[in-house]
Amino acid sequence: MAFFRSHVLVCVDPECLARGAHDVIDALQDELVDQGLIDEIQVLETSRIGGCEDGPEMIVYPEGVHYVGFNADDVPFIVEEHFLKGRIVEKFREMPKVVVDEELGPLRPKEVRIVLKNCGYIDPTNIEDYLAVDGYQALGKALFEMTPEQVIEEVKNSGLRGRGGAGFPAGRKWDLTRQVNDFPKYMVCNADEGDPGAFMNRRVLEGDPHSVLEGMIIGAYAVGASYGYVYCRAEYPIAVETFNIAIAQAREFGFLGENILGTDFSFDLEVRVGAGAFVCGEETALIASIMGLRGEPSPRPPFPSVKGVWGKPTNNNNVETYSNVPQIILKGAPWYASMGTERSKGTKTFAVGGNVKKPGLIEVPMGITLREIIFDVAGGMHEGRHFKAVQTGGPMGGCLTEQHLDLPLDYEALTQAGSMMGSGGLVIMDETSCMVDIARFFMDFTQAESCGKCTPCRVGTRRLLELLQKICEGFGEDGDIEKLEELCEEITKNSLCGLGQGAPNPVVSTLKHFRHEYEAHIYEKRCPSKVCRPLIRFEITDPACTGCTVCARNCPVEAISGERRQLHHIDQETCIRCGICVQVCNFNAITVE
Amino acid sequence: MTAPSTERDIPALVRAAIEKHGAKRDALIPILSEVNLALGYIPGEAFKEVRKQLHDPTEGVFVAESQLHALASFYDMLATKPRGEHVIKFCENAPCHVVGGKAVWDTLREKLSLKNGETTPDGKWTLVTTSCIGLCSVGPVVLVDEDLYGNVTPEQIGDILGRYE
Q: How far is residue A425's CA from residue A390's CA, in Å, rounded to a whole number?
């Protein structure tokens, strides 16, 4: 076989042909003959090497240089430069496009990936990709080498706790369901990830569905369940589609259905799609929704492990909990328990959002500090901005401040600090966020999502929201803070489920750490962060204002007046505080007070 | 999107949904969702039709029309009023809020002269807020029908809406 030092691949797709790809090939052949290079360089026809938008296109190997947008007349020059002189012709060079995954990039400093290890690396719609990374080996090990009791023991010893937020030990939960002598038993996977800012479950369902499925099947073997439901929210259509593909492939390969892997263990499951109700993430509400009812919570006990779907024993875990299971079975409890703190083992995924340089999904060992997460893993705050607070645990969690930055993160530490692990959303805020506004914002959410079944939550969150709105609008009065505190206590004590019990947390924690901001709103009619519009005013300052008239021309309500090259003026009565003038001013002449 | 009236054969639509999800009590939410997806909302006639086709005491399936309304009023995604040709969903949750979502929301409302949940008089646009769709790392996020827009700024709104003219 002839040896060529270089190969030139020319795209001959219809678009490139229409732009003269054949002429390019002819010109290349002629020129290579003329230069005496035809025995060293091979020209090949290929299809689609780029987008064909700027064709003709070709790639030169071994360098891998991609040329676009030239024609046959340019060929002699390219041949002379590239093949005779060895210089890349920058004029026609197309730089490789880097696909940036804004959610989950390459491993960041201090990250350890167990749950996310396959996301982005395997094809989630191809079970063979999962099998190639030891997929379903843990299921084989559990079925052939372990009794259900041993599987439960292994999960118990690993220290794995519920990743949905409450942190109940997974092994103990499985044991509870196993102990009940009532059949059939059900497995439920809570994929109703509703916390704003939390999207780790979506990513796992979309990127590595088989890890969740395998964890569920192992769990079903352990507790003795014969059927399962994956309850996924309707906001995640791709996750639903991907998971359904995974189920079909697992059935085909004998990991689901009758006599799994030839044993006498049988288990099957289906995906149930929600219809937009946050409260369905609460397990009793979720079970009601699976049965075709309004997703309203019911008092516990009885717990689902005793009476769940169709009144039968039901084991319910979150997506992330299940996806940890295969590797615990495969690598053993001691391996998993070697990570984390004394009472919280393994890793936790966090969805980092808000005012940081590198938001996105991360997975870190339990016990890491907030400081490490914000400044090492998430790239720190934006230039010139300062860390103010972080909301952990979603809308039912709390705000933590600078004093908590060095707290080792685990379930207990977060609860003690007045927040909670929740599903792992972290909303990081700098000084541009007003804490009263944030509390109002979360209350707006919980108030809307309250299912209405119990009065403390239904009416109480409404009253809380009204008080917060009043304060943000500048009508706060003496005694409002005390009213807020009293309401918070009553709602927490008397609500039926976690939604109501946790709803006051953002108010309680912001009152605790940022009471002065509430006081500034109420007594000084001032928003220190300059967020609450009724409490701020815009002023044009001399001499920064050049009288360019840009602000006056852009003001939607014509509140700005002034002659060209003269200091302009904002009429405070007319101004709607939209802030457009600040954005358009080229001289930073407009201040916010 | 509202289907043209010729395609609105509601009995057939309901029949197909029941066949797909099963004639059982716990399939009610998937069945109603299916109707909602096809028509953009659930007309009164569809509730009657679901009951008519599904209620079968001899098979032990009991369905009352009031139960169906109870479901539709509970779940946000089940609409009982017609929606516009294009539905704009704005994510109003905290991660989007702190990265400039409020300005985007204000611009949307201003440009369309709509409040949350309203439809323009010409039936072209419906504006609603949505629960978190989990794309927080590219917030603020706006969904127009099935099209997703991330890292949206107020300046881009005119351009985004223009694509549906």
A: 10
Look at residues A378, A408, A430 and tell me which one is the last residue of a structural domain.
Answer: A430
Pairing verdict, β A590-592 and A538-540: antiparallel
pLDDT in tens, A224-266: 999 999 999 998 988 999 999 999 999 999 999 999 999 999 9
What is the domain extent for residue A446?
A: 435-523
Whether cis (ω within 30° of 0) applies to the bond prior to A76 is no
Which residues contact residue A305 at a Cβ distance below 8 angstroms, ignoring those fewer than 6 apart?
A: A173, A176, A177, A180, A313, A314, A315
B137/A351 touch (CB, cutoff 8 Å), yes or no: yes
B132 with A355: Cβ contact below 8 A = no
What would the pLDDT profile of B8-63 be if each residue is shown by its tens digit? Answer: 799 999 999 999 999 998 999 999 999 998 998 999 999 999 999 999 988 888 89
Number of domains in chain A: 5
Question: Is B153 within 8 Å of chain A by CB?
Answer: no
Longest dimension (CA), chain B: 60
Average pLDDT for chain A: 92
Closest CB to A276 among B99, B131, B134: B131
B95, B49: one domain:
no
- Please state, in angstroms and rounded to a whole number, the distance separating the CA atoms of residues B134 and A203: 9
CB contact under 8 A, A274 and B133: no
Asked if A500 and A417 sit in the same domain, the reply is no
Tens digit of each residue's pLDDT (9 = 90 or more) over B128-159: 998 888 888 788 999 998 888 888 999 999 99
A294–B74 CB contact, under 8 Å: yes
Count of domains for chain B: 2
A577 close to A536: Cβ distance less than 8 angstroms: yes
Residue at A531 is within a domain? no
Position A312, amino acid = K
Domain finish residue from A373, A406, A430: A430
Q: Are residues B31 and B94 in the same domain?
A: no
Question: What is the extent of the structural domain holding B145?
Answer: 86-162
Q: Tell whether B107 lies on the interface with A, counting CB pairs under 8 A.
A: no
Nearest CA in chain A to B101: A354
Q: Are residues B91 and B46 in the same domain?
A: no
Shared domain for B157 and B90, answered yes or no, is yes
Residue A476 lies in a domain: yes
Q: What is the ipTM of this complex?
A: 0.88
Q: Are residues B53 and B97 in the same domain?
A: no
CB A370 within 8 A of CB A409: yes
Residue found by looking up tokens 């967020």 in the block: A531
Nearest residue, CB atoms, A196 vs list B70, B93, B103: B93
